[in-house]
Design brief:
The protein is of the alpha+beta class. It folds into four domains: about 140 residues, Rossmann fold, CATH 3.40.50.1390; about 130 residues, Alpha-Beta Complex (Hect, E3 ligase catalytic domain fold); about 150 residues, no CATH class; about 80 residues. Strands 2-1-3-4-5 form a five-stranded mixed sheet, sandwiched between helices. A four-stranded mixed sheet has the order 12-16-17-18. A three-stranded antiparallel sheet has the order 13-14-15. It is elongated and about 105 Å long. The N terminus is likely disordered.
């Protein structure tokens, strides 16, 4: 037998941990009580060179805790020779990891481990009950997690916001479950949406905010003392990132909605948040005061869905107001805006999917002069405005797409289906609550509880998807019903303006189909079809033998007809 090495006494690490997992034991396990208890016991053991390592507010189901990691660093450096905890649950509630530290890591580093209340002392040999205690500690954490998840789910399904208010909102002082507008950041949010409608890209908006010394959301929350995750920016508090602006532009909560269950975690051991599919979201509309009206939000979403990030060429200059509105009628791709390299005065659009220029699949270029489309659209809008001014009844008849009777019948069908789905969804919540209570009371076994809860969850998710679909269809019907009013209001706005603007175009036009030119010379023609928002394709009445003429530029005169065929 080899003689025992004389053990060099180093620091005794007194490790303390407290988290929400501790439930009713939180008061007895407070950090101050643990410190007092461990200091007294260390003195009884004759361990005088002590140092506290504390993790306050950290779960025991994983070991990525600052105090614990610091203790491991000191163990690796050889400073720590003894680790003392109040009980095994303070070290952790993951029985595999706790066992790895107590059975492998500490012995390999010649560290004595003491769990006072569980009567574990590695110097006295192995404790046969320790593994069972570790399993019970994890089961306790699992049960607490299940109760918290159940409460979380119930509160979320009742419309209570489960997340912190987004940038632009804050919690109401009277009711912490309600959000109210925070005036200063709310104005920044409105500016971001306005700049987007004006045709500015996300990168341009970032530079705009930075140039005006607008602090980023995280820095704003730190200055106000509001609890938010993430580290405080050290270098430049005005450096706006593109993903921050994009997140703001995509945030439906600015319409006044509450959206719960956007993310989830796989288990109580893994705290990483995972993006939840949109069909699993629970949306409550018009809960708080909106910062952005729903119409503006939907316009921005349409614009973002069509905008693909592409670094603009310096020679192309400012973005054209028709960018993202022109679509190739053959392949469905967008037309890109260009400036002629030989003659900078010539601005034009061409299919982004053209096979010769961009290695795409579209056989033809679909070339269209920017000044031509601008004058044609302006002229068409002027003719619509003239019809509205001359005969409003004829204008309304032109916009009418579906009879009121058909809309009412469809609305009744959708509302009936929505009511049935909502009632069943509420019933499932009640059934789940009763099942959970019966399980706690021992009336329902854990196996039966797991099977039924999974069944209820699947049905609830299916109903959630149906409810979302029904609400979208009702919203579309409402837009169709209001379409005439909205489109008429937009035309009246055009009548008051001298020039076209990007926001007005997005308010009036859904997209413009551009076909390839046909014929040659004087017989050369090109078909362009304007699809208006809410009302689709329109043909403003004009006699068959009349050709509309436009003087495009010096020496060029264009004739066109308004017939869709």
């Amino acid at each position: 037998m080899q003689p025992k090495k004389k053990k060099v006494e180093g620091i005794t690490a007194l490790y303390c941990r407290l988290s929400k997992d501790d439930g009713q034991d939180a008061e007895s396990n407070s950090i101050s009580n643990q410190k007092t208890f461990l200091a007294q016991k260390a003195n009884e053991y004759g361990l005088t060179d002590t140092r506290y390592y504390v993790d306050d507010g950290y779960t025991g189901t994983n070991f990525n805790r600052p105090g614990f990691q610091k203790m491991l660093e000191d163990i690796e450096l050889g400073y720590v020779t003894t680790v003392m905890v109040k009980d095994l649950s303070r070290l952790g509630r993951h029985y595999v990891e706790v066992g790895n530290y107590t059975d492998t890591y500490f012995p390999e580093h010649d560290v004595r481990f003491i769990a006072v209340n569980d009567m574990v002392d590695s110097d006295e040999g192995e404790n046969e009950l320790a593994p069972f205690r570790n399993v019970m500690n994890e089961m306790y954490a699992r049960d607490i997690s299940r109760k918290i998840r159940c409460s979380h789910r119930l509160r979320g399904n009742m419309g209570e916001p489960l997340s912190q208010p987004p940038y632009g909102y804050m919690k109401s002082p009277e009711n912490k479950k309600r959000w109210i507008i925070d005036p200063e950041p709310a104005e920044i949010v409105r500016t971001i949406f306005k700049l987007t409608l004006d045709g500015q890209g996300v990168e341009t908006i970032c530079h705009y905010l930075q140039d005006r010394k607008i602090i980023i959301p995280l820095e704003y929350w730190f200055e106000k003392g509001l609890p938010r995750g993430g580290k405080r920016p050290q270098s430049n508090p005005y450096h706006w990132r593109m993903n921050t602006v994009q997140k703001i532009l995509r945030n439906q909560e600015y319409c006044g909605d509450v959206i719960n269950f956007k993310t989830y975690s796989k288990s109580f051991k893994n705290k990483k948040r995972i993006e939840n599919p949109e069909e699993n979201w629970v949306i409550f509309r018009d809960v708080h005061e909106p910062i952005i009206d729903r119409e503006t939000f939907e316009l921005v979403q349409r614009k973002l869905s069509r905008t693909k990030r592409r670094k603009p060429k310096p020679e192309n200059g400012e973005k054209n107001i028709f960018s993202d509105l022109l679509v190739c009628a053959d392949c469905g791709k967008k037309l890109w805006y260009h400036v002629n390299t030989l003659n900078p005065n010539i601005h034009f659009f061409a299919c982004s999917n053209y096979e010769k220029d961009y290695r795409g699949t579209c056989k033809t270029r679909h070339y269209l002069r920017a000044d031509a489309i601008e004058q044609i659209v302006t002229n068409e809008l002027k003719r619509l405005a003239a019809l509205l001014e001359c005969d409003e009844n004829a204008f309304v008849a032109l916009l009418q797409q579906q009879s009121d009777k058909e809309q009412q019948e469809e609305r009744k069908r959708i509302e009936s289906d929505l009511q049935k789905a909502s009632s069943r969804s509420e019933q499932l919540v009640t059934l789940y609550e009763k099942l959970y209570e019966d399980n706690l009371a021992g009336k329902v076994t854990d196996e039966w509880f797991a099977q039924l809860s999974q069944k209820y969850d699947r049905e609830r998710l299916e109903l959630k998807a149906k409810i979302a679909e029904y609400r979208i269809r009702l919203n579309n019907l409402e837009l169709q019903k209001r379409g005439t009013e909205l489109f008429t209001a937009a035309i009246r706005k055009f009548m008051e303006m001298e020039t076209l603007t990007a926001p007005l175009l997005w308010e009036l036009i859904d997209h413009i189909d551009v076909y390839e030119t046909e014929g040659t010379g004087k017989n050369r023609t090109q078909r362009i079809t304007i699809c208006y928002r809410f009302v689709g394709y329109l043909e403003v009445p004009v006699p068959d033998d009349v050709l509309l003429a436009l003087d495009m530029r010096r020496g060029v005169r264009v004739n066109y007809t308004t017939k869709a065929g």
